[in-house]
């Protein structure tokens, strides 16, 4: 192996040595000369080898500089990426080179080739044009001219192109093209046309020249020439990038020559081939679609035009409205006409749009944000001499009656100096409707004022006037003014022509109740009986209630047998609400000495209605019946059950006393003592506790253990008082007498004096309660709450219920909802009267809602809705709160039923919000069709609570956005933006969605 390698090495060494000797004999200058010869022959590959070899041994500075020039020049000619860097390096090393002008030209050309036109201009300006050879001079001029054109220096560019056009060879035709293009850009169309016409005959410029010729003809409105040139180009170059624009101008030309069928063909292609068609052409396309009866196509095209505020958009909206009308989409037509009517670019378009908009409002009954009245007024103000003016005057009256934004309508009518009879008739109805809105929103004084105005107008609208009497009577009734209520109900009954209606029947029911509240049982009985003959629904809850009231009237007249019959009938009609009828029936049986019948009735009540508010009464009366039957064992068991089940009831206190007495009479003295002591400890300060202490004394006397009694009394301490000194009693009674007379100032002074004198007096709780009541009347809630708290803390059962009720009310008014909830909760446990029971549940529900305690709100709403006598307004509120709680707990299906009910009346804030929430619920579950139905009904029927209607419009836009119908979304948002007057978050919601659509 070694013998082979050594000879090979020797051969390689000898070869290298011979090459070195051969190279030494070649002259460096000879290499330069050969390299330059190859350079001049443009044999750049061979040139580079010679020059690189020369530079390895060269010593002549001038020749080295020349060699570097040729190498840099070759890099440029070969199009190397870094040629500009090599050329710049050359100038950096040889700034005084005689080739600097050529090198600068080449650097500029290199930048030109890369599209860096500003750099190219800089380097071209570093070169002296006159030093360059003719070929370089022409290339220099063309490249500089083109660079100037690209950087916006059009005049300078044209000068260079024009010079080349005259004397150039290589770039003459190209320069002629750019001269023509510059003339075209400068609107020198005739000059440009001459040049482009000449260039048409040069094959490489035929297409572009013909294209610009067509453009110039289009600008000059020479539509026939446009069509000739354009169709020729489209046929010759079917795949040209210019074709999209050619479709546009040819289509436009056919349109202007009134050939809309052809125009439609070309403009359709134009719209299909560009992502951003011009709005003007889309408008023309829409017109063509419309005139060719393709109304959906028209809607699609016009919808893409209306994204700016200008005359074109106004015109497009007018066409959109007409197209929607043809498609029988009156709601969207109305929105489009509204958009055109609210713009002022074209007066004729505005007039036509306003009239169509007004007409659609009249036809559809659609209302939104007061625009239904405003648009008619604006039309008459803006176009008093319009050919539509008479019709609009007639429509205006009808819109007053159909709009639900009655306040805006009333303001409008009040502006009319000489209203016609039709206008006054409309005004009377509007005042009535406004009154019912105030009534529904529990603003009774405001409602009465509006009903007064409606009644005082006279008989322009007899029906509205009579109905105003009824609802004013309702308002007075709710305020406890029964005399005024009776007067209004009777006026309604006497004047109304519609005697078979539910309202006519209800007036008799309400008259009966008004007299009943005044304890005028004979008159109440008359009207209640009349109501039973008028009520058509024989299963109505109100009918069952009426028979109960008839029974009460007969009961108070001591007609017990007839009373019992009516209670039984009430229970038969409404078994679920038969607890009162059953209780009263049992009570009547007791008065008739039918104690077993009474006990059976009370047992049935407790069994069938365990949650009835009369359950504790039933047990007490059952116990009393056993006492009267001298069945002490059963009586004691009944009273024990009463005390255990309903310890908070006042009847539990009375039952405790009865129990003590029963055991005493049965000689069960220890049980008797225990019963009395339980009353004393559980209900300190009550009348029953005082009686129990007195009776307990008798028990201990029988036990012959007076010391034990004294020890027990002493153990009660000073905080429990049963006896008052004479001075204590006289001081209190004098102050109480002033309070009862209504002298609050004197009473307040005397009661404060009493508490200062006897801070632990026997009547201190009474005094604190009266002082709290006075402070509450004076709206001095801080002192009132302090006094009522003292009553509650004292444990005095006499005023405890009312004290807790007032304390809760004050905390609610002060928005201390957490504390108020606890107070209402306590009231719910101890309240015996139905008013306080209802107030407690209502307060719990509202406080829970305000503090986001959804479960408690839900439970309170459910309890409240069990009340058979709950007013329609409170039923709606309870359903609303329950629905909101269900939604918060993600139980949308349960919420849906309540929202459906509450949303039937959008006059209330709860109803309006429920309407929106129902639509939102459908939207969230992707039931867009149902959501739209709800929103259409919302918009048609209107609401005085504009915020929720505005939220509905935004949701409507969201539905269209989800459908991909940006046009309709924009129409709804623009309508809302124009008409909604509120200063709230609606504005930002609109802007965010419009921005989304724009992007």
What can be said about this structure in brief?
The protein has 999 residues and is mainly alpha-helical. Among the domains are: 2-132, Serine Threonine Protein Phosphatase 5, Tetratricopeptide repeat; 313-417, Alpha Horseshoe (Serine Threonine Protein Phosphatase 5, Tetratricopeptide repeat), CATH 1.25.40; 907-999.
Notes on the protein architecture:
By secondary structure, this protein is mainly alpha-helical. Among the domains are: 2-132, Alpha Horseshoe (Serine Threonine Protein Phosphatase 5, Tetratricopeptide repeat), CATH 1.25.40; 313-417, Serine Threonine Protein Phosphatase 5, Tetratricopeptide repeat (Alpha Horseshoe), CATH 1.25.40; 907-999.
What is the level 1 CATH name of the domain at 2-132?
Mainly Alpha
Number of strands: 0
Estimate the global geometry from the Cα principal axes. Answer: elongated
Number of helices: 54
The SS-based structural class is: mainly alpha
Largest sheet descriptor:
none
**CATH homologous superfamily title of the domain at 2-132:** Tetratricopeptide repeat domain
CATH topology group of the domain at 2-132: Serine Threonine Protein Phosphatase 5, Tetratricopeptide repeat
Measured between the Cα atoms of the first and last residue, the distance is 81 Å
Segments where pLDDT lies below 50 for 5+ residues? 1-25
What's the average pLDDT?
87
The CATH architecture of the domain at 2-132 would be Alpha Horseshoe
Measured as a percent range, the helix fraction is over 70%
Rounded radius of gyration (Å)? 50 Å
| Beta-strand share of residues | under 5%
